[in-house]
Amino acid sequence: MLTLFECKIRYVKPDEHSGKDKKVTEAYLFDALTYTEAEERVYKEMPEYISGEFAIASIRKAKYAEVLPSEDGDRWYKVKVSFLWVDEASGREKRISQIILVLASDIKDAVDKTIAGMGGEGDESFEVNMVMETPIMDFFPLFDKDKLPEDKEVARRPATEADADLPKLQ
């Protein structure tokens, strides 16, 4: 399960229409193990995207079960998906909901990408209950996919245990 943190960053940027500086607060999503690591990653990653000074306005845990990024999306959508689950011990059916974050160009595209990410067309084991646009500007995964070790659980262990298993980053 992912441990995601929504970090709100406050900074000054030029207004697109008037050209005057204005204060803005934008939300970014970071995959991190702790609040401290999320804060550290904000200060490490954000100078590439924001010129000048910035401050962290808030950090909170985000409850997304999965993140589905894509190359052609420009907005992040929160998609609520429900699964029908049968408890084998009691034989009862139970509906379980999860929230998925999807990068898409519009609501229809978000639904299509969710269906594709959950197993494709014709799968009746889940249904999409809600789709809404989020204020999230960007997502920063814990590891670059090109540099991710084969065993993701090795990557999620504390650094002291996993140093020998991780590839050396330059």
Mind explaining what this structure looks like?
The protein has 170 residues and is α/β, with parallel strands linked by helices. Helix content is 18%, strand content 42%. Strands 3-1-2-8 form a 4-stranded mixed β-sheet. The protein has a 4-stranded mixed β-sheet with strand order 4-6-5-7, with helices on one face. A hairpin with a 6-residue loop joins strand 1 and strand 2. The chain is elongated, with a radius of gyration of 19 Å.
Overall strand count = 8
Largest beta sheet: what is the strand line-up? 3-1-2-8
**Average pLDDT level:** 84
Note the gap between the termini: 28 Å
Question: How many helices in DSSP terms?
Answer: 4
Structural class of the secondary elements?
Answer: alpha/beta
Q: Topology, please?
A:
Elements lengths: L3 E11 L6 E11 L3 H11 L8 E9 L3 E3 L6 E12 L6 E12 L2 H11 L8 E8 L2 E5 L11 H5 L2 H4 L8
Features:
170 residues, four-stranded mixed β-sheet, 42% strand, alpha/beta, 8 strands, single chain
Summarize the structure.
By secondary structure, the protein is α/β, with parallel strands linked by helices. It has helices at 35-45, 107-117, 152-156, 159-162, and strands at 4-14, 21-31, 54-62, 66-68, 75-86, 93-104, 126-133, 136-140.
